[in-house]
Amino acid sequence: MTTFRVFSSTTLAVLLLDVCLVCCDITDGNAEHLKREHSLMKPYQGVGSSPSSQWDFWGSTLVTSSYVRLTPDERSKQGSIWNTVPCYLKDWEMHVQFKVHGSGKKNLHGDGIALWYTKEKLHPGSVFGNQDPFLGLAIFLDTFRNDLHGMDRSFPYISAMVNNGTVSYDHGKDGRSSELGGCSAEIRNREHDTYLAVRYSKGRLTVMIDVDDKNEWRECIDIGGVRLPTGYYFGASAATGDLSDNHDIVSMKLYQLMVEHTPEEENMDWSKIEPSVSLLKSPKDNIDDPTGNFRSTPLTGWKVFLLLLCALLGIVVCGVVGAVVFQKRQERNKRFY
Ligand SMILES: [Ca+2]
């Protein structure tokens, strides 16, 4: 039985380590994998229009030493900031610290921030200050409800859209017809820091938020079957209309995710991929989806917990059965001799 106890504690330690590794994956950006050429951080050196700069900005954007203000709390402003280095990572995670604040009372503020991974950069337009239609991925932090029929959700509302350059963003419906998923989140006029993380890995798009000063990520969007090419640009933009807010970006940190791909995947030209989505619902609603896009995706916290529980139960059962069999054999052996 001593052997069993040693075995179980070692196994438990290994399992706990595995769980920690899985859980910590999205919450802590590993500094080793931070990609500085795609990150925007205080004091924002290398931001500007010189040929050597890694970030360029447009419109009402104001760069200070402690934040990048895309729009001030004034009417009819648009601003954006764009990474000038195209991203060739296949698997990545972007952590954005942002702040939306202003003097407008409830429902009297707008319009919000959009985060981008797109083919083109610095093309001003009507989608939160960026062009319409766009080609690539957008995450919208929409603070103003345009669609008065959509009362089933509260604002601010965070949503994702993947566009192959043919679909227009419908402001009147808050982009509902083209959204892939979303969640409501109190992101405005918070006293504490507010964060959002976008992860793209193996065709899975995950958006997590940390806006309640709990220092933990809350899942907002999680969908499989998303195809995005390499070679696009990261950016952020914001717009105000009749109503306004300060839309500030404090930092955008890009981390490379170490993920193995099959030789076929490695050999294909990822820059030729057309942005698309094969699953329009959350993977949770597509358990029987034949494409199996989400099956090989990372485990979520509760799944890991269940697996751990099953593993422990398995070990206990094996131990007990083993002990009983051992004892029976000993008894049988005694009888023979
Ligand atoms: Ca809106």
Automatic annotation (TrEMBL):
GO cellular component: COPII-coated ER to Golgi transport vesicle; endoplasmic reticulum membrane; endoplasmic reticulum-Golgi intermediate compartment; Golgi membrane
Location relative to the cell: Endomembrane system; Golgi apparatus membrane
Location of the L-type lectin-like domain: 32-257
Keyword terms: Disulfide bond, Glycoprotein, Golgi apparatus, Lectin, Membrane, Metal-binding, Signal, Transmembrane, Transmembrane helix
CDD domains: lectin_VIP36_VIPL
InterPro entries named among the record's database cross-references: Intracellular_Lectin-GPT, Lectin_leg, VIP36_lectin
GO biological process: endoplasmic reticulum to Golgi vesicle-mediated transport
Record-annotated membrane-spanning stretches: 304-326
PROSITE patterns to which the protein is assigned, alphabetical: L_LECTIN_LIKE (PS51328)
The UniProt record lists the keyword Glycoprotein: yes
Domain of life: Eukaryota
GO molecular function: D-mannose binding; metal ion binding
Signal sequence range: 1-24
Bilayer topology: Single-pass type I membrane protein; Single-pass membrane protein
Protein name: Vesicular integral-membrane VIP36 isoform X1
Source organism per UniProt: Solea senegalensis
